[in-house]
Amino acid sequence: MTALDHRPLTDPEVIPDHVTRINEAKTPTGPGRPGASTAHITASTAHLSVEDIERIGSELEAIRDEVMSSLGEADARYIRRVIRTQRGLEIAGRILLLGALFPPAFVLGSASLGVAKILENMEIGHNVLHGQWDWMRDPEIHSTTWEWDHVSTASSWQQTHNYLHHTYTNVHNKDRDIGYNVLRVDPDQPWHPTHLWQTVTNLGLALIFEYGIAAFDLEIDQVQRGEKTWAEKMPEIRVMLRKAGKQALKDYVVFPALSGPSFVPALVGGLLANTIRNVWSHAVIFCGHFPVEVETFDEERLENESQAEWYVRQMLGSANIEGSALLHIMTGNLSHQIEHHLFPDMPSNHYAAIAPKVRDLCRRYGLPYHSGPMWKQYGGVLWKIARLSFPGGHETIDKRRRRALPVGRKAAATLRRLRQRAVPQAA
Amino acid sequence: MIAGVLARATRALTTPLLPDDCLAFVNPLWSVRVPRGRIVATRPVGPSTTELTLRTGAGWGGHRPGQHVGLGVDLGGRRHWRTYSITSAPTDEHLTVSVTAVPDGSVSTHLARVARPGDLVGLGPAAGGFTAEGSLLMISGGSGITPMLGLLRGGTADDVVLVHSGRGAHVHADDLAGLPATVHRHDSTTGHLRPADLDALVPDWRSRTMLVCGPAGMLETFTAAAAAAGVPCVVERFRPPEPVAAGTGGTVTFTTSGVTAEADAVTPLLRAGEDAGALLPSGCRMGICHTCVGRLTAGAVRNLHTGELETADDGEVVVRTCVSAAAGDCAVDL
Question: B122: nearest CA in chain A?
Fold first, then answer.
């Protein structure tokens, strides 16, 4: 019995018209057509034929269509309820911090504000900016009008996150999210002496994560590589500084000033709330792509990559966090990172329901489905960052990746590895 | 100046939201940015027509007699917009519109039969220039009476003759008596109102400016008659939904770039536009990043993912140009 049994599945043998259309619009040559690339073949997909991959693609499209055609009243109520809850928590937090001299008010106020900021950034901001709620056509909950409680501006985030990260997920030299230019999170990244203390760098990054993201979204590395001049970057930097200034003014000056004698504790409360949000979002985001087993890809893979191959790359390059409904909401449903990467514009409240179907699909096609409790995922991330602060690491990481393959496939992968080792490195 | 400082201070408190968002959070009617109205009363004014009385929110910018307004309704979680003539005078406390439930019309059926006092609706800006001066002859058919009510109640002209045609029970029948106009009723059960009927009903009709609103056939007949008699004539057309040709492309106009492109039914608008030389925003080119979105201002597009049609008539429709293809002629504000 599979999770897909209860509904008539469109015949997976037949690739629906619109999939072919999208494929052709995107990749004029496409898989199986003359000139198609073989770069999609990695250790975990070597057993799949081009047809298998296309079938995976059409099954995923069927899952997507089922959800997207079901969207309605209940979903609209869901996001409005989350927004109401978030605003309620924020107001409560601000009011409590007005009396921050009184310790219980300080603790409750900071916590409430911290939770509000997490909800605002993750379940609301991130997902609205992805256009998950654009289908409602509500100008107040729309990716083109939303601005979030974060120092990075919405439009700048949409460029680096929605476009670069989501299109080129885990592709070296394309997805800048691999290590955010400061960390070595994959053995294929060249080692540099500064990586020696990257465990500490990472801790520091967690504390100031929103500023890290804002600096990262500015793509200053374009200037270092000579692709852009400082003069060209200045307008963007100015917009970002203005936003950061407004955020700081609100949290660290205006609200503390309103608290009168509680100025200092209110300021500390605001700082604490922002830090709670930073550390949490850092942890969630790192658990999404940096756990040990998650794969990264070479740039050649992008050549003629079809929609179905793109889907497979998204699944191999993401990892889920298992936990309670509360955990899922507090992560903005990024605990369903795999489902989010497959369908970034699907309303997040549906990820939990499709996750078993995607997991079952992976099982049937012998693909790994990276998922684990938070302690395991985050522990793996921290271990990997520690290991990769030293040169090398290919062997260890590859071993962990092989171990994540479904049983049976492990044996095949080991065999292949031994065979490759037996052949001298002539080619 | 004090107001300015106060506004700046409030913005500093609410950033990144606007103070307006917070006001709307407390009471949706207080929003200036997103105008809304609340239904305060409903009244049946015909067999399938309901008059809605709306209290307008802070964002409502007023109207001129004869204008129409877009009403936004959330159905199945999606906002749909439809346009209705305003029947109240600009000076009235409340705004009134009359909605006739159209067969298969989900929005009109909802507004006419389901909507209750207390419900919120979105309000578009008032628009339209249906008006005239001097001696007037108003000719209306069915729910075409609504802009005439708006004009008459708004006191646009002193010397008005209204010829209203309808089948059986007239829409707004009870309201016709109190209007500042000479009213002639015509029952179309036995046949349509014809221009030839005017000579008997309104002997001096050739010296009046004609205002017509009603079914398409009526508009056609009377504009032709007015043209033949050399009488100035203004019409108000209740725009029917544009027929969408299935499986055909069309001409795509990118209004900001000023570029037009021919596109077939399977080519994404983005590619058609770029091929025609338009500089368009783009990102993933596969419908996930929403970098390429533009507002559909006319016509319809088909979503290549879902096969779903999206038409500009639905109001604020934002489309992803990379996964939308033309379904007939259309325009995008990019």
Answer: A138
Q: Which domain holds residue B67?
A: 20-123
Q: Does B248 touch chain A (CB under 8 A)?
A: no
ipTM surpasses 0.85: no
From chain B, the residues in CB contact with A308 under 8 A are none
B281–chain A Cβ distance below 8 A for any pair: no
* Co-location of B111 and B141 in the same domain: no
Q: How many domains does chain B have?
A: 3
SS (H, E, C) chain B: CHHHHHHHHHHHHHCCCCHHHHHHHHCHHHCCCCCEEEEEEEEEEECCEEEEEEEECCCCCCCCCCCEEEEEEEECCEEEEEEEEECCCCCCCCEEEEEECCCCCHHHHHHHHHCCCCCEEEECCCECCCCCCCCEEEEEEHHHHHHHHHHHHCCCCCCEEEEEEECCCCCCHHHCCCCCCEEEEEEHHHCCCCHHHHHHHCCCHHHCEEEEECCHHHHHHHHHHHHHHCCCEEEECCCCCCCCCCCCCEEEEECCCCEEEEECCCCEHHHHHHHCCCCCCCCCCCCCCCCCEEEEEEEEEEECCCCCEEEHHHCCCEEEHHHEEEEEEEEECC
**Smallest CA–CA distance from B317 into chain A, residue:** A137
Give A141's contacts in chain B (Cβ within 8 Å): none
Based on the domain organization, do B114 and B24 belong to the same domain? yes
pLDDT in tens, A237-280: 999 999 999 999 999 999 999 999 999 999 999 999 999 999 99
pLDDT above 90 for B103: no
**pLDDT tens-place string over residues B272-319:** 888 887 778 877 777 777 878 899 998 999 888 777 888 887 777 889
